[in-house]
Amino acid sequence: MDYGKFLYEEKKKKRQSRKKQHVTKLKEIQFHPNIEEHDYQTKLNRVIDFLKKGNKVKVSMFFRGREMAHRDIGRDLLERVIQETKEIGHVDSPPKSSGRNITMYLAPEARN
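Now predict its structure.
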């Protein structure tokens, strides 16, 4: 076998293997504690779509001004997101508070 043909076959194998792999991306959804129900449902549907496609999701809760006094409302909202997505995904890292925001990561359930 000549060396050029060997290199061609190796490139072809690498290309085929790359076609079948799925790269997980990190998507982000941002919430505020005073979100209305319809807006919440819209963002939750986006989170569910991302998880179904196999992507990880960073859920961020931002606090502005006097909202800082009601961080418990934000935590409750994040717990609600966890409860409503538990069939499709799981919590990769629990909600963590840092400065004016709380972030958590959701990962899709393993496919069998």
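Residues 3-20 form the longest helix (18 residues).
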